[in-house]
Amino acid sequence: MLKNKPFRLTLIVTIAFILLVGIALLSFTYLNKSANANQATAMSAKDMAATQYTMDKITTNLQGASFVQIGLTLQADSKDARDELEQRKVQVKDTVNEILHTTTKVDLDKPDGHDKLKKEIMNSVNKFMTKGRVIDVYITEIVVQ
């Protein structure tokens, strides 16, 4: 059956065509989902303002002999999540303090130091959120000595 050259050629072309169509469909599906995800996360300035939780300024010791004074705003994904942050403000502040107490001045001075701090704060706060999540953390001011 496979010794017939025209049949083998037809089989190979058919399999190649099916593979190409499959790859094209998978690519289209993946790209379409990515575009929808980007549209879903894009908020208007008004929506962003309505879902931001601004913390009181924190002054605390860093690990070692340094201290930090920092202002933070947490961007929630919904108004319910923002309200939950307000209700959990003591827990949020305690979480940020714990993170800062294990952070050194050298950690913050690294090129990616602020990004790592923001990501750690976001991940830690999201662990206890039940009505939504924090999608970004903004450092509004920071002084390290």
Please state the overall shape, judged from the principal axes of the Cα atoms.
Answer: elongated
H-E order: HHEEEHHHHE
Stretches with pLDDT under 50, minimum 5 residues: 36-40
Here the CATH topology of the largest domain equals Tetrahydropterin Synthase, Chain A
Radius of gyration of CA atoms, rounded to a whole number? 25 Å
Percent of sequence in beta strands: 15-25%
The helix tally amounts to: 6
Give keywords.
145 residues; alpha+beta; Tetrahydropterin Synthase, Chain A; 2 domains; 4-stranded antiparallel sheet; 6 helices; 4 strands; FliL; membrane; transmembrane; transmembrane helix
Layout: helices, strands, pairs:
Elements: H1 5-41, H2 45-50, E1 52-54, E2 58-61, E3 67-76, H3 79-87, H4 89-101, H5 105-109, H6 113-126, E4 134-144
Antiparallel strand pairs: 1-3, 2-3, 3-4
Notes on the structure:
- Keywords: Cell membrane, Chemotaxis, Flagellar rotation, Membrane, Transmembrane, Transmembrane helix.
- The chain crosses the membrane at residues 7-31.
- The protein has 145 residues and is α+β, with helices and mostly antiparallel strands.
- It has six helices and four strands.
- The chain has two domains: 1-42; 45-144, Band 7 domain (Tetrahydropterin Synthase, Chain A), CATH 3.30.479.30.
- Strands 1, 2, 3 and 4 form a four-stranded antiparallel β-sheet that branches.
